[in-house]
């Protein structure tokens, strides 16, 4: 007997719906813990099972279903949830209907939301693709290649202690972050946290994200109007992903506009942006300090410099910078505590 499942963080659902009629087919609602308790009672009175998760995400939901003995799940969702499910590696086969119609618009919805890809070479390929015409529509189906969990490169004991003395190099706890909806997604340089960085003339510039600042820094100090145009386009980018796309394409198409020392300073630029972000938002700083003793891994399967890569081949520089920042914050906190004790 099939089970209907509704996945919603907010439980913003209608009081009356055919879904709540469980006389023939059962319905389950999975949601974030604490969401609309009064509505949960209404659903329970109708015979609808409600399951709460501390952090609602596709991977935990699928693990829960597996424990319940549900071995075949069909996802029918919007672009945002589809992207989250694909990123979590819980989608194994895709069925896509293509209709002979054209729609569009600046704000048109995409069948798959943001996956962090900026190049066609990063696209996920379908395997064993089949095509079937159903009326005027075409059904395309194919299997997704497995997306393995990236295994971080654990530094040697001396390297680990140099980055963060609190980490146990032999039995490290590993915290992965990548997408902004991940539990630790706020650690990403793509998170929507604005930062205010100083200018050479003594003023300050507000950047929409660390990624905006990082991409624009590639062209700073270059005496060419084209470089200034690049910075302007990055500043006006509506999202960190768009800023990355602009910065990377300009760097590839116009390498002469990139500052000569970029490869030598890009790590320092990223670190200064991260330090500003975590210093500006106390809750982010507390979140970072709470990971003390854990290895942080940027779990991008595509970026082999800042991320861990698909199979741990990445250098994970973003994770390393965050561990370095965490260690500095812990040192500052310790110094402050000692000063307070002396003052008392």
Automatic annotation (TrEMBL):
**Listed GO MF terms:** 5-amino-6-(5-phosphoribosylamino)uracil reductase activity
What are the transmembrane regions?
none
State if Zinc is listed as a keyword: no
Please state the pathway this protein functions in, per its UniProt record: Cofactor biosynthesis; riboflavin biosynthesis
CDD domains cross-referenced by the UniProt entry: NADAR (cd15457)
One GO biological process this protein is involved in is: riboflavin biosynthetic process
Q: Which residues form the NADAR domain?
A: 176-329
- Every copy of the Bacterial bifunctional deaminase-reductase C-terminal domain together lies at 2-138
Q: What is this protein called?
A: 5-amino-6-(5-phosphoribosylamino)uracil reductase
Assigned keywords, A-Z: NADP, Oxidoreductase
The protein's matches in NCBIfam families, at most eight in alphabetical order, are given as: ribofla_fusion (TIGR02464)
Q: State one Pfam family annotation.
A: RibD_C
């Amino acid at each position: 007997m099939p089970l209907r499942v509704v996945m919603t963080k907010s439980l913003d659902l209608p009081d009356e719906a055919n879904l709540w009629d469980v006389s023939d087919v059962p319905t389950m609602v999975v949601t974030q813990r604490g969401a609309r308790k009064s509505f949960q009672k209404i659903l329970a009175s109708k015979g609808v099972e409600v399951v709460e998760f501390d952090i609602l995400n596709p991977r935990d939901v699928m693990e829960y279903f597996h424990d319940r003995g549900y071995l075949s799940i069909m996802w029918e969702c919007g672009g945002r949830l589809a992207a989250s499910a694909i990123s979590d590696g819980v989608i194994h086969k895709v069925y896509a209907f293509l209709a002979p119609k054209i729609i569009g618009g600046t704000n048109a919805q995409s069948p798959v939301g943001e996956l962090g890809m900026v190049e066609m070479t990063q696209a996920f390929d379908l395997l064993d693709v089949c095509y079937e015409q159903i009326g005027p529509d075409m059904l395309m189906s194919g299997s997704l290649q497995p997306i393995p969990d990236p295994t971080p490169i654990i530094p040697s004991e001396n390297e680990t202690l140099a980055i963060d003395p609190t980490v146990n190099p032999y039995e490290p706890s590993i915290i992965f972050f990548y997408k902004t909806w991940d539990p630790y997604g706020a650690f990403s340089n793509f998170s929507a946290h604005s930062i205010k960085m100083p200018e050479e003339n003594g003023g300050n510039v507000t950047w929409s994200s660390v990624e905006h600042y990082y991409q624009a820094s590639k062209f700073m100090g270059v005496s060419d109007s084209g470089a200034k145009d690049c910075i302007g386009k990055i500043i006006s980018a509506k999202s960190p992903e768009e800023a990355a796309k602009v910065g990377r394409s300009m760097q590839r198409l116009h390498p002469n506009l990139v500052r000569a020392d970029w490869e030598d300073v890009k790590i320092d630029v990223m670190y200064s942006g991260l330090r500003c972000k975590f210093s500006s938002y106390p809750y982010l700083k507390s979140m970072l300090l709470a990971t003390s003793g854990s290895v942080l891994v940027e779990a991008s399967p595509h970026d082999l410099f800042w991320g861990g890569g698909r199979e741990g081949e990445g250098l994970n520089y973003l994770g390393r910078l965050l561990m370095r920042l965490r260690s500095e914050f812990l040192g500052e906190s310790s110094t402050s505590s000692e000063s307070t004790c002396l003052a008392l």
